[in-house]
Amino acid sequence: MYFKKITILFLLIFASIGYAQTLSLKEAIKTGLENYGSIRAKNNYTNASKETLKQSRRDYLPNLNLSAQQDYGTVNGQNGPLYGFGGLGVASSGLPLPEQNWNSAFGALYLVNMNWDFFTFGKTQEKINLSKIDVQAKEKDLQQEKFQQEIKISAAYLNLLASQRLLISQQKNLDRAEVFKKTAAARVKNGLLAGVDSTLATAEVSKAKIALNLAKNFVKEQNNKLVDLMGVAPQDFVADTLFVTQIPKEFIQGNAANDSLHPLLQLYKTKIDYSNQQVKLFKRFYYPTMSAFGVLQTRASGFDNTYASDQTAFSRNYWDGVNPDRTNYLIGVGITWNLTMPFRSSKQVSAQKFVSQALQEEYNQADRELKSQLNFAEDKIKITLENYAEAPIQVDAAKRAYIQKSTLYKNGLTDLTDLTQTMYVLNRAEIDRDIVNNNVWQSYLLKVAATGNFDLFINEF
Predict the structure, then answer these.
(1) How far is CA 415 from each of CA 197, 267, 326, 343, 423, rounded to the nearest angstrom?
(2) Which pLDDT does position 43 carry in this prediction?
(3) Which of 19, 215, 230, 287 has its CA at 20 to 30 Å from residue 295's CA atom?
(4) Judging by beta carbons within 10 Å of its beta carbon (0-12, 13-18, 19+), is residue 171 exposed, middle or buried?
(5) Is 207 a domain residue?
(6) Domain extent at residue 181
(7) Is residue 256 within 8 Å of residue 460, measured between CB atoms?
(8) Rounded CA gap, 208 and 188, in Å?
């Protein structure tokens, strides 16, 4: 019966404020995980790392180049050394004639080139392994972000629920103040009370209205925080009150064992794994690379094979110059080894080892903080449960005192000051009850945040 009255009053209050949508905690979390910007961003980062893994696997494929060119120019040759610095040398070839001539014809080159680093002493595989760990790191980062968002949304939801419960208490306090304002005014009018009682009752009504308006403002603040975390357009929500007078079932049944590592520690662990894998990759650069290569080349020229003895034996006809008539092929294997690479890569290895040690220290610090948070949550749960047991006693006593004083006041056996004091005590007791009930769930959420198993919390709903 009490719960039904509270629910009816709850809905009436928010109907008077404006349209508000009833929202369950599961709906809030689902919406937040789908819409929140950082989660959507990290989901894309995860997809990008998966594509990078596919690309690193394809890097093992050989290079296969096709090339074709058709030219027109002279073929004067000259004895002497030449270095095509920056790729700007001209590949014209011909006889080193005693003097320059301007005989010119078409020429062409058709080329197929393949080269393949078929054995890299583990460099290719280590790159693939590094990409795999990067995918895991991005996935763990996404899981950690989702877990943190679930905790934030749950905390904001509980804060909204607490603020709305406080609003109900302040509305009930205002209703009581208005009733006794009418009673005092009637008794003053009939000469049964002094006029100051009516004035004091009016002041109490104004005080109650101010407290109610402050509660409305607090509700709006908490609602906006929840809206931001859900990533939705501004709107008013009404939190579900079905669980507000209960305590988590896990407090009665006992907490289930959680053997899984906290999402934050999982993230740090993958960062350490990623750094260690980079060390392995840098060490592979100490070794050479073995390559296989093959070339198929076809050439065409407008200069005849007798051009060496007869400089008139050439044709400026386009087709004569680009029709291929000579072909060469070449296949082979090779090995390249930069002997200075071990000296340079050794510093990369040592630097990365320091990074791994730093990440391990961050992991250890996070582990200590989570254990400390868990210990604090356990102590807080004990205290909130004790307060939870005391809150109904306080409210019941305050109600009986209020009824007693109100009865005495109506019969002229006490003054308004005593009645006002009992009204304040009752209002304070109701607020304490609302806060204590909410703190039970907040302390349980704190424990869940420390253990890393959000299912323990959400399965309560």
Answers:
(1) 8, 65, 121, 93, 13
(2) 92
(3) 287
(4) buried
(5) yes
(6) 2-35+125-277+344-458
(7) no
(8) 21
Token pair recorded at residue 309 = 């003895």
Average pLDDT over residues 26-41: 90
Domain assignment present for 139: yes
Mean pLDDT of 22-50: 90
Give the whole-angstrom CA distance, residue 425 versus residue 352.
64
Is 230 a domain residue? Answer: yes
Overall number of domains in the chain: 1
Could you tell me how many residues make up the chain? Answer: 461
Rounded Cα–Cα distance for residues 205 and 171 (Å): 11
Helical (H) or strand (E) element with 412: none
Q: How far apart are CA 458 and CA 443, in angstroms?
A: 14
pLDDT-derived band at 244 (thresholds 50, 70, 90) equals low
Interior angle at CA 373, CA 368 and CA 378, nearest 5? 130
DSSP-derived pairing of the beta strands 21-23 and 104-119: unpaired
- Cα distance between residue 344 and residue 16, in whole Å: 74
Amino acid at 92: S
Is residue 46 in a domain?
A: no
CATH of the domain at 352: 1.20.1600.10
98 close to 79: Cβ distance less than 8 angstroms: no
Is the model's pLDDT at 325 over the cut of 90?
A: no
In this predicted structure, the answer to whether residue 4 has a pLDDT above a threshold of 60 is no
Contact 313, 306 (CB under 8 A): yes
DSSP letter at 62? Answer: P
Residue 101: C-alpha distances to residues 71, 109, 301 (Å): 18, 23, 17
pTM value is 0.79
- pLDDT digits 0-9 by tens, 159-209: 999 999 999 888 998 988 888 778 777 766 666 555 556 778 788 889 889
User: What confidence score (pLDDT) does residue 3 get?
Assistant: 44
pLDDT in tens, 73-92: 776 655 555 555 565 556 66
- Dig out the tokens for 92 from the structure: 């014209």
**For residue 171, which of 110, 112, 214, 108 has the smallest C-alpha distance?**
214
Interatomic CA distance for residues 74 and 455, integer angstroms: 80
Q: Yes or no: say if 447 and 378 are a contact pair by the CB < 8 Å rule.
A: yes
Range 313-322, long-range pairs (CB < 8 A, 24+ positions): 314/103, 314/105, 315/105, 316/104, 316/105, 316/106, 317/106, 318/106, 320/105, 320/106, 321/70, 321/72, 321/105, 321/106, 321/107, 321/108, 322/70, 322/106, 322/107, 322/108
